[in-house]
Automatic annotation (TrEMBL):
Name of one Pfam family that matches: Peptidase_S13
Catalytic class of the enzyme: hydrolase
Organism of this sequence: Endozoicomonas lisbonensis
Annotated GO MF terms: serine-type D-Ala-D-Ala carboxypeptidase activity
E.C. no: 3.4.16.4, 3.4.21.-
Keywords: Carboxypeptidase, Hydrolase, Protease, Signal
PANTHER family: D-ALANYL-D-ALANINE CARBOXYPEPTIDASE (PTHR30023), PENICILLIN-SENSITIVE CARBOXYPEPTIDASE A (PTHR30023:SF0)
Domain of life the protein comes from: Bacteria
Residues in the signal sequence: 1-21
Family from the record: Belongs to the peptidase S13 family.
Protein name: D-alanyl-D-alanine carboxypeptidase/D-alanyl-D-alanine-endopeptidase (Penicillin-binding protein 4)
């Protein structure tokens, strides 16, 4: 009897100690949150994925702008819906068999699948396959088929002044080299001369209407360049570059994807001495194309998810979301079908979306609103289904943690897993909105403000990393 009493006494003291220690951890987190800038809004939750117990939360169900932390939804959805063996396929098909004379009679169709990893060299490989099959003439039209996707190439809520930048490249079914092209802007020989634009790959036939002038800025400030729409070119580039300026690196998203692919294909066929008797037409013909005459496959899905989570690639994320929509709904892929699939498939497995609003798979849109509780639900689902065998945890660089960050003007967020010494993870999401220093602010003040936010994130992760046993997540 005395042994029982001593055991109960010990367990009571242990429970009391654990409660006090856990309260200390919660207090540390509360103190961190209380030091966030005035005017900021936050949604935070920490949960034990085994017990499902909420260990800390503040504003956990507030729907805020997540930025790129939304990519954890896209990755989890894609891995669940498509599977690790999924690959994209890009192929050329014909209406008729190839004749013995190397002629394809009738129409030929180049079908795109929304493969975000597709490069121009892969199209070159497809044309090489035609040559290897002794094809030297296409007697009909060449159709460029992008019907697997429908709707806009960009989601609503993407900032208009980001549209020419590579991280906001259009997520169309036709994707070549991430729908981006590069060059160097150099000053002319003397003041008043036009600036010189030299492209990395001039054979891609992608150009801007360069109207930049070599001159010192008339208002005594640094010369800048502005990008405007253009009907004939990808963009019109205006402004000035100082005579003594070093070459400026320029990166542009493709503004007209169909036109870009059409121009490239004309040049590619000519390069390989394949005669095209018809036209190149963007669209899907009302014809049966039963004969596949060239084909390319992407890497499997786990490799395609690396750019999503490691490089935070928006194009990969949005294209993969659209692909899930197409594969699961039977309709053309779009932002709408992708989000509908996410709500249905993940919702049926326990993810509570509540009144969240989602419009893309990358987090690039400012129309996205989601809570920390929903992001934690998604991460909990990932842990429940695959544990450390998911591609993102299996390939993580740091054993003690894995998380996805999100950055946007006024937004800093992170969501992921922290693995304390006991090896069991803590699942967390932190979404911070409204992050602005008192204005006007100097460059030095802005840098200090950003450093303070980064310090908050580091401290938050450290508290979680130190608190595994304290928060009683070791017992099953």
């Amino acid at each position: 009897m005395r042994r029982v009493i001593r055991l109960l006494t010990f367990l009571g003291l242990l429970c009391a100690f654990t409660t006090v220690a856990a309260d200390a951890v919660v207090t540390r987190l509360e103190n961190l949150v209380s030091e966030l800038p005035e005017g900021s809004v936050y949604s935070i939750q920490v949960r034990d994925p085994i017990k499902g117990k909420v260990l800390f939360e503040q504003g956990a169900h507030l729907n805020l702008i997540p930025a790129s932390t939304l990519k954890v939804l896209t990755a989890t959805l894609a891995y669940d819906a498509l599977g690790q063996e999924f690959r994209y396929s890009t192929h050329i098909a014909s209406e008729n068999k190839v004749t013995g004379k190397g002629v394809v009679n009738g129409a030929v169709m180049l079908s795109f699948s929304g493969d975000p990893s597709l490069k121009r060299e892969h199209l070159n490989d497809l044309v090489v396959q035609l040559k290897e099959n002794k094809i030297d003439t296409i007697a009909g039209d060449l159709w460029l088929d992008g019907a697997v996707y429908s709707g806009y190439d960009r989601a609503g809520g993407v900032s208009w002044d980001d549209l020419n930048i590579c991280f906001a490249a259009p997520a169309a079914a036709m994707i070549l080299d991430r729908n981006c092209f590069y060059g160097w802007l150099k000053p002319g020989k003397k003041e008043g001369d036009p600036a010189i634009m030299e492209y990395d790959r001039p054979e891609w036939n992608l150009e801007v209407d360069n109207r930049v002038v070599t001159q010192k800025s008339p208002d005594e400030e640094r010369c800048t360049q502005k990008v405007r729409p253009s009907a004939e070119y990808e963009y019109e580039l205006q402004g000035c570059i100082a005579p003594e300026s070093r070459p400026l690196r320029m990166a542009f998203s493709v503004s007209n994807v169909e036109r870009a692919v059409e121009r490239f294909m004309y040049g590619l066929l000519e390069q390989h001495d394949i005669s095209l008797k018809g036209r190149i037409i963007a669209g899907r013909p009302e014809l049966n194309m039963p004969y596949t005459i060239a084909e390319h496959h992407s890497q499997p899905l786990p490799e395609l998810l690396r750019p999503v989570l490691e490089d935070s690639d928006n194009l990969y994320s949005d294209s993969i979301l659209k692909t899930v929509g197409r594969q699961t709904s039977g309709k053309a892929g779009s932002y709408e079908t992708g989000i509908e699939s996410a709500r249905t498939l993940l919702g049926n497995k326990g993810v509570g979306f509540g009144s969240s609003r989602l419009v893309d798979g990358s987090g690039l849109s400012r129309y996205n609103f989601i809570s920390a509780a929903t992001l934690v639900d998604i991460l909990m689902l990932g842990w429940k289904q695959w544990g450390e065998e998911s591609p993102w945890l299996n390939q993580r660089k740091r054993k003690e943690q894995w998380f996805k960050t999100g950055y946007m003007s006024g937004v800093r967020s992170m969501a992921g897993y922290v693995f304390p010494d006991n090896g069991r993870p803590l699942v967390f999401a932190v979404i911070l909105n409204g992050l602005m220093p008192p204005l006007p602010a100097t460059d030095k003040e802005m840098r200090a403000f950003r450093q303070d936010i980064r310090a908050f994130h580091r401290s938050f992760l450290k508290v979680l990393g130190d608190s595994g046993k304290t928060l009683d997540i070791s017992a099953k």
